[in-house]
Amino acid sequence: MAVNNPKLDLIILPTHSPYSIGIGDFSQYPEGFTPSSPTIEITPAGFPTKSLSFVPNNLNVYNSTNLGLTCEEEKELPIPDGIYLLKYSIAPAYENFVERAILRTDLIQEKFDIAFMKLDMVECDRTLKVQQKIDLDTVEYFIECAIAAANQCANEKSIELYNQADKLLNRLIKNYNCG
User: How far apart are the first and last CA of the chain?
Assistant: First the structure.
């Protein structure tokens, strides 16, 4: 099927790092078409929008420095979790763009992994271990529900579910012991 006009699309790819976000160009371009002035605007959770260059037909990786969260001379920091707004455009930008809202969860996922490994390595009585596993399953469920809510543009609900997951996870980590 031939594409007459560009159909812009983005895909968020896991970098498995709290220090970066991977955004791929998942667009369909007409044969022989070269995108003009490709740009992405990224609005990180709680920060102003940053307009950045974007390489079409490629994976673009961004960090705290190029997102404007840290200065060049500062140590790179983890990118915060939360709702991110993305807008990819090519010239003419008024008619060739795509927008996405995503929920970034790399930091809470890292915290979840630590809690999971503690559960797996701690020798507790069976009843306590079963309850901790149920609690971790509940946290995972809240995270997945938060992502689903963000995918449906229910940003407030997404943040509410994320915060519930974080609160429960913090309580679990704080109270990990064998009774």
Answer: 63
Residue that terminates a domain, selected from 104, 124, 144: 104
Residue 165: inside a domain: yes
Count of positions (residues) in the chain: 179
> For 58-82, what is each residue's pLDDT tens digit?
999 999 999 999 887 778 899 999 9
pLDDT at 120 over 70: no
**Facing residues of 89 across strands?**
39, 97
pTM: 0.86
Q: Which of 104, 121, 150 is the last residue of a domain?
A: 104
Cβ–Cβ under 8 Å, residues 146 and 165: yes
Q: Is the dihedral of CA 78, 57, 35, 99 positive or negative?
A: negative
Alpha-carbon distance of 101 to 27, in angstroms, equals: 17
